[in-house]
Amino acid sequence: MKGDNGNGDGYPGNDTTLSKLDRKLYEKELIRLQVELVKMQYWIKATGFRLMVLFEGRDAAGKGGTIKRVTEPLNPRGCRVVALGTPSDQQKSQWYFQRYVEHFPSAGEIVIFDRSWYNRAGVERVMGFCTPEQVEEYMQSCPQFERMLVRSGIVLLKYWFSVSDSEQEARFQSRTEDPTRRWKLSPMDLQAREKWAEFSKAKDDMFAHTNIPEAPWFTVEADDKRRARLNCISHLLSKVPYTDMTPPAIELPARPKHPELERPPRWEQFFVPNRYPS
Predict the structure, then answer these.
(1) How far is it, in rounded angstroms, from Cα 79 to Cα 17?
(2) What share of the chain is helix, strand, coil (3-state, %, to 5)?
(3) Which pLDDT tens digit goes with each residue over 122-158?
(4) Going by C-beta distance under 8 Å and a sequence separation of 6 or more, which residues neighbour residue 221?
(5) Are 146 and 214 in contact (CB under 8 A)?
(6) Percentage of residues in the chain having pLDDT higher than 70
(7) Are the C-beta atoms of residues 172 and 185 closer than 8 Å to each other?
(8) What pairs with residue 57 in β-bridges?
(9) pTM here?
(10) How many CA atoms does the CB half-sphere of 140 hold within 13 Å?
(11) Which of 53, 110, 139, 197 is the most buried (most CB within 10 A)?
(12) Is the separation of the CB atoms in 142 and 90 below 8 Å?
């Protein structure tokens, strides 16, 4: 396994690194795309469409930031993010896919997985949390499982966020320096940091088995977070055949006049102190 030259995920070759996308352009385009996401959600709810999106990739590849930008304009009642923790002893004894199935979308819903059943093909395999026999069974079962989902009418989108070794290391370093983001760097991340080549091999093997026509992988080049977010959201929108079903603006009637009320004195209540100058 050769080191990468900026192409992401350990691919050797010419340096294709782009300068960081201009912030003003990014913010303007993000607003436009988020308006489209809202239109998409109205259509999904009205038509009973079922959309499931998987976000996978290396640690610090930018999955969480993209998920945040996708979900922040949407109604949380129709869009759920699923980020499952370590399986319990009971769940470990179940069919591998079982604990994921209960979170699948109903009619009119969007479900986003922040990591998914692909844990087995990646971190579980590389870190030794499963046996080679379990990995082999997974590689055979996963394509069949996903074909069944697609036949049932669920639209399944799978995104892999690709980041270069040097960019991942820079992001890890920034997390150690920022106390508000230090929680993102777990002991498991530090162990995985030493296994770049092993994760690259596992990812390539995973793609070879699970990049199927019914549910292909889409790779997001993510060394520039702004570009990655916009490219991913734009691509997601292109995969849903929505039309604008945004309801018209509500015309608020004149506010009725209320009779004057005798309110209890302020001193009977507790107020949060204002610690900032007015």
Answers:
(1) 34
(2) 45, 10, 45
(3) 999 999 999 999 999 999 999 999 999 999 999 999 9
(4) 8, 162, 227, 228, 231
(5) yes
(6) 94
(7) yes
(8) 161
(9) 0.90
(10) 5
(11) 110
(12) no
